[in-house]
Design goal:
Blueprint (H helix, E strand, L loop, with lengths): L8 H46 L23 H12 L11 E4 L12 E10 L17 E10 L18
Antiparallel strand pairs: 1-2, 2-3
Length: 171
């Protein structure tokens, strides 16, 4: 005689297992998105630093003269615009990334000379893709703040053959 399996047992087992499967899948998706986001922000910082090494803006366009702190760069300056667009070129998934770019001279504002370092820093708060992290009762709802910093040596001073006096960056 064969023993019969109770009806609906597999349905009940699936009801118990399904939430764990969804948590695992959503967790994998969010982790992959965080890794993708960091790689994108890191590469955007690297591209912006490369552009900054070619066209370093004047300190008055990126540094508060009273406090000496880095400020939101002046987007009307052609050199700053080139740096910001270089940071945004790779980050199509993050359309407001350029708003989080800070440019500075680590050796002080007076170090805008060939061979001196220039630094680009991006700090961006990532929101998760899935609602899973928002359901966690602690932390900041899955928001992850990522910071990437890149330094390069200044290779040119922003010369532009089409600009007046061959100067592309305006003081």
């Amino acid at each position: 005689m064969m023993k019969r399996q109770p009806r609906g047992q597999s349905l009940v087992e699936m009801a118990f297992v399904t939430p764990f499967i969804f948590i695992l899948i959503f967790g994998i998706i969010d982790l992959a998105f965080y890794i993708y986001s960091y790689a994108t922000i890191f590469n955007a910082t690297r591209d912006a630093a490369e552009a900054a090494a070619q066209v370093p803006p004047y300190p008055s366009k990126i540094i508060d003269e009273t406090s000496g702190e880095s400020i939101q760069p002046d987007a009307t300056d052609p050199c700053v615009t080139r740096i910001l667009s270089a940071s945004q070129k790779i980050a199509v998934r993050f359309p407001d990334l350029y708003k989080h770019v800070l440019i500075s001279y680590p050796n002080g504002p007076g170090s805008r000379r060939l061979g001196e370092p220039i630094e680009v820093k991006i700090t961006y708060a990532m929101r998760p893709l899935t609602p899973l992290a928002q359901l966690v009762p602690f932390g900041n709802g899955g928001m992850l703040t990522m910071t990437a910093t890149t330094r390069r040596s200044i290779e040119a001073l922003g010369e532009d053959p089409k600009a007046d006096n061959l100067i592309g960056c305006q003081p």
